[in-house]
Automatic annotation (TrEMBL):
Protein known as: RNA polymerase sigma-70 factor (ECF subfamily)
Keyword tRNA-binding listed: no
Domain spans labelled DUF6596: 179-279
Keywords: Sigma factor, Transcription, Transcription regulation
InterPro entries membership: DUF6596, RNA_pol_sigma-70_dom, RNA_pol_sigma70_r2, RNA_pol_sigma70_r4_t2, RNA_pol_sigma_r2, RNA_pol_sigma_r3/r4-like, TPR-like_helical_dom_sf, WH-like_DNA-bd_sf
Keyword Transcription attributed: yes
Length: 409
């Protein structure tokens, strides 16, 4: 295998194995910093050695073994050497612990990091960093905050875990309901980063992240089959993933929902998602955030043509979602639906109210640009497209916005 081939294997292995290695080391050594740094050192060693020695038959096992050795070496160098060395060696030699309620290593650590003692944003950010495979800039973009702010949140979360000695134990079945909200938030953001990557240095759609988020959400559903929000999130992911092959053109440009070739949609995923939505409606229990988002996507995927979309139903569902989860992004998405139902003028008025909250969000400016274009105000539309392009990190989205701007003449 040539050098380029080895580099591709290392990149793919990082996507696939990073979280497993970190999870295994955290469970063994009980220290997030040690786990993360040892995993990073193992991957750095792979970058040095694999081009010369060849890719090992089982890259994940090689990385886990190497990372374990790196962690033990670090502990040996630290203060109180004898006690720490003995503790590390005992941990290293002990037989695998029983999995408890959760058998998957990665999902187990997600539940562990989503401890109720941490603030919700800290739980989500920390877990995304360690297990979602996301960088601090990617997480910061997901939360619409500065990179330095997000870095401090993650650092504080690690420090609190260490100071309060939160246990890295396998959560029991009784712990799951109290932690599931944070777990679902993590899985939702991991899926979103895969659905439309926020950075310019990755593929615009990251199948590895969407597939892993769906896999883990299926496992959470198996653990909590009666939880409506778990079912809602799974339905939302399936109905969104069903459109993946139609979302980027052959030239690498984003294809918006109204322009997608719907025969490319995955009918099996749509059927499964619709079934989950129907089952939740039949339960008679008031829906939560993810269930409403899934219902909105069910309306979109029920239409054989974009012109057949029941926009009055979409607006009604967003009205319900705004009452339940009143965030600026929900309000922005509701304004888009209002624009389809009532026209661009009332929609633009709704969007402009969000400027102070969403001025740094590219989709705010992209939405304004489209509404201004429809209102026949090309100069203002061009300026809004320029702002959206400057803020958008995704290459496919940037290509789409550039084309729409240039069509203004």
């Amino acid at each position: 295998m040539n050098g380029d081939g080895v580099r591709e294997v290392i990149i793919r292995t990082h996507h696939e194995e990073w979280a497993r290695v970190v999870a295994a080391l955290t469970r063994r050594f009980g220290d997030l910093d040690i786990a993360e740094e040892a995993a990073a050192e193992a991957f750095a060693t792979a970058v040095e050695r694999w081009p010369a020695d060849g890719v090992p038959p089982n890259p994940g096992a090689w990385l886990t073994t190497t990372a374990n050795r790196k962690a033990i070496d670090r502990i040996r160098r630290e203060s109180k050497r004898a006690d720490k060395q003995r503790e590390a060696q005992m941990s290293y030699d002990e037989p695998p612990r029983p999995a408890g309620a959760i058998e998957d290593e990665r999902l187990r650590l997600i539940f562990t990091c989503c401890h109720p003692a941490l603030a919700m944003e800290a739980r989500v950010a920390l877990t995304l960093r360690l297990l979602g495979g996301l960088t601090v800039p990617e997480i910061a973009r997901a939360f619409l905050v500065q990179e330095a702010t997000m870095g401090r949140r993650i650092t504080r979360a690690k420090a609190k875990i260490k100071a309060t000695r939160l246990p890295y134990r396998v959560p029991g079945a009784e712990d799951l309901p109290a932690r599931v909200t944070g777990v679902l938030a993590v899985l939702f953001l991991v899926f979103n980063e895969g659905y439309l990557a926020s950075g310019p240095d990755t593929d615009p759609v990251r199948r590895d992240l969407t597939a892993e988020a769906i896999r883990l959400t299926r496992m959470v559903r198996a653990l909590l089959p009666e939880d409506g929000e778990v079912a809602g999130l799974l339905a939302l992911m399936l109905l969104t993933e069903a459109r993946r092959t139609a979302r980027v053109s052959a030239s690498g440009e984003l294809v918006t929902l109204d322009e997608q070739y719907r025969d490319l949609w995955d009918a099996a995923l749509i059927a499964e998602g619709h079934r989950l939505v129907r089952d939740r409606l039949a339960s008679g229990v008031a829906p939560g955030r993810y269930q409403i988002l899934a219902a909105i996507n069910a309306v979109h995927t029920s239409a054989r043509d974009a012109r057949d979309t029941d926009w009055s139903q979409v607006v009604a569902l967003y009205d319900q979602l705004v009452r339940l989860h009143p965030t600026p992004i929900v309000a922005l998405n509701r304004a888009v639906a209002v624009g389809e139902l009532d026209g661009p003028e009332p929609a633009l008025a709704l969007v402009d109210r969000l400027r102070d909250q969403l001025a740094g969000y590219h989709a705010f400016h992209a939405t304004r640009a489209d509404l201004l274009r429809r209102l026949g105000r090309p100069q203002q539309a061009r300026a809004a497209y320029d702002e959206a392009i400057a803020l958008a990190g995704n290459t496919a989205e940037t290509a789409y916005l550039t084309r729409r701007r240039d069509q203004l003449g």
